[in-house]
Amino acid sequence: MNAPVMSATVTSSWPDHLVVLPIVLPIAAAGAMFLMDERRRTLKAAVSLVTVLVMLAVAILLLGRVGEAPEVYRLGNWAAPYGIVLVADRLSALMLALAGTLGLAALVFSFARWGQAGPRFHGLFLLLLMGVNGAFLTGDVFNLFVFFEVMLAASYGLVLHGSGETRIRAGLGYIAVNLVASLFFLVGVSLIYGTMGTLNMADLARRLASPPAEIALFEAGCAVLGIAFLIKCSAWPLGFWLPTTYSAASAPAAAILAILSKVGIYVVLRLSLLLFGAGSAQGFGQSWILATGLATIAFGTLGILAARELTRAAGYGVMISSGTVLAALGTGNQGALSGALYYLLGSTFAAAALFLLAEILQRGRDPADAAQPVFADEYSDPFDDADSTEIGRAIPAAVAIIGGGFLLCTLMLAGIPPLSGFVGKLAMFTGLASGAMTASAWGLIAALTLSSLFTLIPLVRLGIFSLWVPHDDPPPVLRAPEFAALAILLSACIALAVWGGPALSYAEATVRWLSQPHDYVRAVLDGAAAPGAGS
Amino acid sequence: MEIVLAAGIGVFAASGVWLMLRPRTFQVVLGLSLLSYAVNLFIFSMGRLTVGAPPVLGKGAEVVSVDDPVPQALVLTALVIGFALTALFLVVLLAARGVTGNDHVDGREPHHAEPTPENPHP
Predict the structure, then answer these.
(1) pLDDT in tens, A377-401
(2) Environment class of residue B36 by beta-carbon count within 10 Å: exposed (0-12), middle (13-18) or buried (19+)?
């Protein structure tokens, strides 16, 4: 796109700026949040809700727009390898929609109780979403680091939200682990820059077409970078922090943190298919990713079997879903990968819904936990407020709704018909069976089948403990926002199953697009977006 | 120059890793800081080591060698982010100290304490 064309279409080209909205909007709203008085809760909640709704709408619009060709947004109109670009392709748009849906549900859930349990919840929440969206959109590795840090800094605040000893202790470990991961990230990025002389993802892929002089050092850099992302997606043996942190976090924070491990998955997917899909470093690290994925599934399965609390079980569910996508990526089978991508959406929704359900079920059994202030002068009691002591309107038949929701989550996470967890696993099996039946394919099929069974057993057991309570225990109270949040997540799960055909074919088209890195490179560097349009 | 820088990075990184594995939270913070110094020097050195070479050229400048400005920009960003996150970590450390009453990374002392009336066989 040259300059005269741009100036001629300035008035009519507003949809071209859609790509930058998922970043600009939340950071502007978050900035406004910090200026607003902490007591104007309704206003803050309304602004957050509108922001997240617009973000979700933009993500859905982008889903429709990037079907043919990716949208490349040049920040400051600097051409690609010199300036930073945002790239919205099929995968980015899909992940944006996932983040938007999850964000909406977590935000609505927080209206019931948690949004008032401490200061600056909405600001941190929006900053987290901004970092996540930026990480999905950016086409530059160092810019990715910056968005990662924004997202992590906000997540440190959210993990501590609500305070209490458990959260502070879990938060201490979480922050330490992620600071180390950031250092790995920096070492990897600088090694890649030192060997290749560029940090633009498309430019890296283009330069890899001919073998660089220091290919071993470049691959070492990528491996170090990979460690940072594998820590983020809690792959074994780098993910021991995840269940502890997620089960300590407050429910809406845990639900939105479920997207964080998916950011790690997204980057591993993006970089390994773009840089190692073809060219001189083809296939680098693939067997390691497969082995890590299988080990993560195994560890997550053992962990969920041993879990005695619902939140821990949900945390291990997040691990299993990460491991599944990693292992499917490691097999190098396109059918398996598209099944895994579809499975990723459903399992993320289900794990987030399980975090929310766990909070509703376990509420009142450990009331001391949420009442500990961080600083004595800040908030004496997080829930000590006139309008929060009013009991929310209890939805009739709350137990039936909670039980039904729990059942749906269990079916999704265990991958049992008729929901999308099963469809995703079936798609992976079909993809693997249509290729060469190697040992790795058999290994993945065995791991997925066993993890289904061993996810079902502990979830049923935990469900019996928490739902079949004696009559004299007070029944759980479900407030309207909590019901709405659960409804959003569970209907997303059901919609994925009902419209399984279109969703799966979208995932297949995404994987086809990702496995042709030349089109991505051409679109970013030459502006020739459509495949086959020439360079 | 290369050997001095390499040795410096090595010493920073080794001390940082050792301190980070220590049981007190303050040692962990110091270890993380030292490690981030090592990493920042490493990023800086990825632009190759030059002496007296300008990173930005003016018009008509006669220069024999130029320095790569990108790693310098990167290290600046990394420094700022690292500083902010270390400060945030310090706040959490203080909160943990206040809540748990000690500065052990696990939030409690390990189990070789003296016998107490409540716990006669530790």
Answers:
(1) 444 455 554 444 445 545 557 778 8
(2) buried
Residue B39 lies in a domain: yes
Residue bearing the bigger pLDDT, A490 or B101: A490
Do A193 and B70 lie within an 8 Å CB cutoff?
yes
Q: Which residue of B has its CA nearest to A157?
A: B88
Q: Do A169 and B89 touch (CB under 8 A)?
A: no
Residue type, A24: V
A175 has a chain B CB within 8 A of its CB: yes
How many structural domains compose chain B? 1
Selected residue of A158, A178, A179 to mutate for chain B interface (largest B Cβ count, 10 A): A179
What ipTM score was computed for the predicted complex, to two decimals? Answer: 0.88
Residue A193 with chain B: CB contacts under 8 Å:
46, 70-71, 74
Range of the domain at B39: 2-49+70-100
Show the tokens assigned to A152: 């992590």
Look at residue A74 and give its three-state secondary structure: strand
φ/ψ of residue A274, rounded to 5: -80, -45
- Contact residues, B window 39-78, toward A, CB-based 8 Å cutoff: 39-40, 42-43, 46-48, 70-71, 74, 77-78
Mean pLDDT of A314-341: 91
For chain B, how far is it from start to end, CA to CA, in angstroms? 55
Alpha helices (H) in chain B, listed in sequence order: 2-20, 25-45, 69-100
Asked whether A70 and A520 are in contact (CB, 8 A), the reply is: yes
Q: Which residues are within 8 A (CB) of A295 and not within 5 positions of it... i.e. 6 or more apart? A: A235, A236, A237, A323
Contact between A106 and A122 (Cβ < 8 Å) = no
**Residue B62 resides in a domain:** no
Task: Kindly report which listed range (A265-269, A519-523, B48-52) carries the lowest average pLDDT score.
Answer: B48-52
B109 occurs within a structural domain:
no
Q: Residue A515: name the closest of A89, A79, A60, A73 by CA.
A: A89
Question: Is B111 among the domain residues?
Answer: no
* A378 interface with B at CB cutoff 8 Å: no
Annotated domain spans of chain A: 15-278, 285-363+394-498
How far, CA to CA in Å, does A484 sit from each of A106, A509, A518?
A: 10, 32, 43
- β-bridge mates for residue A88, sequence order: A71
- What is the DSSP code string of A269-337? HHHHHHHHSSSTTTTTTHHHHHHHHHHHHHHHHHHHHH--SHHHHHHHHHHHHHHHHHHHHHHT-HHHH
Paired with A214 in beta bridges are none
Q: Is the pTM above the cut of 0.90?
A: no
**pLDDT per residue over A50-74, tens digit each?**
999 999 999 999 988 887 788 888 8
Type and span of the H or E element at A72: strand A71-74
What is the rounded distance in angstroms from the CA atom of residue A214 to the CA atom of residue A117?
53
Q: Which residue, among A22, A145, A17, has the nearest Cα to A72 in the 3D structure?
A: A17
